[in-house]
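stage 2 :: seqdesign
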């Protein structure tokens, strides 16, 4: 598949590397950026052409798919233009920063008949995939609660490095919208349909930004399960994402990209409920970072989805749902009230 990469920043570089690592199934043909010199630097590294005319690049016949790697508030405009030009789309998270913008992408996807994948690569890591399969198979029984933690560190220089970073108008949010959304997506993937949110947020360790660097939220799901979420970029020196899922028949914990605990009642003798079970050993490609491998696997799933005419594992529906919860967290933190989702009534 022949790709146009839009956005030659840090994330764009990651996508360029991924596209060119797909064992000949992906070809990076062109890099587009409004700053032509930046496009030329990245294109030269990967043997592609460079342009600053994004609109014209999208209409070319030698392009099959567009990877959108620009600031979050620009995602919908670019994704819709690509779909209207008949291209498939890979869009970095978040889908956009408003539901109205996200819905424009969904409408263009339906009208075009093309495929859109939203980056959420943690679903493709072995440990989350194993836990999700265990939940689906009923091995944890009724899932009752989960805890997701995205405790990262970003120095002040990170926010000062681009005029759009830390701005609600273009960045859409802070520690949750841009970093914690991955942990949130896993939480929703494990527990199902979210129906109510109550949250607090704050900016505690950074200056000159109008978004949060710390947020804490409680989420109620349609099943009755309760989830808690912490997202921060103010936790020096930063820790990997942690996820714990609990049910009335078992529990699972993911730490440092690995399944560190998995304990179920299945096959146990009576009275052995508290025996410690070692987590199963999951396959991991030797010499490769789990996140990098998962990111590549998401691209492979996108290619397979296009070839098979099926939705990708993480498509616009999943991307919109994650965005909806993020925005509900922000609304609850702003108003101090619970926010209901999907028409569900908030608890008094």
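stage 2 :: out
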């Amino acid at each position: 598949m022949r790709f146009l990469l839009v956005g030659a920043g840090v994330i764009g570089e990651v996508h360029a590397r991924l596209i060119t690592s797909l064992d000949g199934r992906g070809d990076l043909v062109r890099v587009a950026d409004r700053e032509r010199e930046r496009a030329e630097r990245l294109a030269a590294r990967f043997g592609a052409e460079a342009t600053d005319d994004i609109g014209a690049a999208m209409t070319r016949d030698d392009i099959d798919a567009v990877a959108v790697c620009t600031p979050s508030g620009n995602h919908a405009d670019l994704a819709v233009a690509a779909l209207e030009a008949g291209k498939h789309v890979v869009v970095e998270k978040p889908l956009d920063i408003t539901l109205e913008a996200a819905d424009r992408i969904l409408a263009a996807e339906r009208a075009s008949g093309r495929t859109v994948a939203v980056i959420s690569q943690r679903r493709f890591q072995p440990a989350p995939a194993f836990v999700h399969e265990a939940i689906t198979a009923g091995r944890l029984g009724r899932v009752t609660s989960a805890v997701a933690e995205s405790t990262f560190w970003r120095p002040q220089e990170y926010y000062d490095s681009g005029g759009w970073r830390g701005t609600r108008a273009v960045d859409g949010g802070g520690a949750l919208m841009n970093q914690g959304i991955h942990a949130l997506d896993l939480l929703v993937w494990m527990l199902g349909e979210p129906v109510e949110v109550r949250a607090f947020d704050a900016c505690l360790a950074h200056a000159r930004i109008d978004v949060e660097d710390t947020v804490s939220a409680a989420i109620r799901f349609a099943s009755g399960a309760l989830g808690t979420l912490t997202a921060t970029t103010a936790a020096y020196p930063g820790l990997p994402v942690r996820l714990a899922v609990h049910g009335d028949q078992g529990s699972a914990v993911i730490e440092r990209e690995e399944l560190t605990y998995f304990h179920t009642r299945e096959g146990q003798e009576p009275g052995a409920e508290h025996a410690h079970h070692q987590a199963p050993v999951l396959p991991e490609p030797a010499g490769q970072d789990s996140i990098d491998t998962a990111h590549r696997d998401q691209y492979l799933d996108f290619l397979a989805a296009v070839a098979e005419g099926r939705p990708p594992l993480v498509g616009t529906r999943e991307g919109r749902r994650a965005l909806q919860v993020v925005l509900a967290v922000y609304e609850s933190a702003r108003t101090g009230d619970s926010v209901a989702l999907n028409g569900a009534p908030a608890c008094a």
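stage 3 :: structure notes
- The first strand starts at residue 2 and ends at 6.
- The longest helix spans residues 316-335.
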